[in-house]
Amino acid sequence: MSLGHLLALILGSALTGIEIYGCVEYLLSQQGRWSYIVAGGAFVTGCASVLPILAARAWRERRRWLAVMLGLAVFPALALVLGAAIERTGGARDAEQLARDAIARSIRLAEATVAEARAALAEREAAAARECSTGRGPICRGLEERAEAARARLAQARDALAQIGPPPVDPQARRIAAVLPLTEAQVQLYQPLILPMTISLLGILLLAYGAHPIFAARRPAPAAAANDQAPEMPPARRQRPSLRLVEPSERTGSVLAFLAHSLEAAPGSTVDVRGLYAAYKAWCAKGGLRPVSGGQFAADLSAACKSAGIEIAERDDTLFCLDMRLTA
Fold it and tell me: Cys-Cys link to 12, which of 28, 207, 217, 241 (CB 3.0-4.6 A)?
């Protein structure tokens, strides 16, 4: 494993640990105590980061339905992780927005009060001017006093508006909206999603990259055995199926000669290695040759498949030669 893969594993594990901590903290705040829901949330969060790796592994092993099911399981697992994180980040952002909305509402109410006081002052000043144009009697003085009271209320309303201050704004949302084709409300709605999604995606990708050498490691070739049991063989790098083998001259049944005589390319077909060994022993018996042991057959078959580019895959503890079949 290289230093880059090790660093990716460490960083991916750290991000996954952060997600687990955040999910447990969120569920504890919801449940009020430790329960199986909290424990399950912690394990689901941890599993969510490795599900894509397992799905890719199952796909390479040709377990298609298992790979699809593992891939689909990622979505509900991530929904739990993202939901917990988004509620925390979104809740804090919503609290800030509520405070700004409260100030904006106070400004609107104060402005409405100023407008009403200004209209009342104008009306009373006009009434006083009409009445006082014919003389300053008791009615004129009363209207002037009402106009003065309205003038005082207008001054108080203006002072209250000045104390509230300027309309509140979200500087981050305003600047992002100026750059992107989004409104400030849309930025405030979507921005809390960025950090939780980044943590989840980076954790999954870093773990997938760091774990690749582990999951992609090949099994060593089996040692030769002194019995005739079915052999186990490591998978070889897949190339275009082809059999161009050299048949040696020995009294022992040659595995290369058997493969050249009995195997042919057939895309989509598979040959069970156990059945292939049984066919080899029958071929030797027919030709009066002595079959090699199961371990030697495995070693020769592994070398031949690697040279010919034939892929060998494992399904349910059974090995198969892919895209090949036994001839009649």
Answer: 207
pLDDT at position 266: 81
* Cα-based distances in Å from 227 to 103, 267, 279, 291, 311: 86, 32, 16, 11, 25
* Token pair of 72 as six digits: 């689909």
Amino acid at 176: I
Query: CB of 12 within 8 A of CB of 210?
Result: yes
Q: List, in sequence order, every beta strand (DSSP E) within 33-169.
A: none
CB atoms near residue 157 (< 10 Å): 19
- At 221-271, the pLDDT tens digits run 444 444 445 555 555 444 555 554 444 444 788 888 888 888 888 887 888
Distance CA 60, CA 217 (A): 13
pLDDT digits (tens, 9 = 90+) for 273-309: 888 888 888 888 888 888 888 888 888 888 888 888 8
pLDDT score, position 68: 87
Beta strands in 111-258 (DSSP E): none
Contacts of 84 (CB under 8 A, 6+ apart): 22, 23, 26, 27, 41
Span 297-307, pLDDT tens digits: 888 888 888 88
Question: Is pLDDT of 219 > 50?
Answer: no
Residues 65-73: contacts with CB within 8 Å, 24+ apart? none
DSSP one-letter string for 259-294: HHHHEEEEEEEEEEHHHHHHHHHHHHHHHT-BPPPH
Q: Cα–Cα distances in Å, from 258 out to 54, 265, 292?
A: 37, 14, 12
Query: pLDDT grade, residue 220 (50/70/90)?
Result: very low
Short-list 90, 87, 82, 73, CA closest to 19 = 82
Task: Give the count of beta carbons closer than 10 Å to the beta carbon of residue 13.
Answer: 16
Average pLDDT, the chain: 76
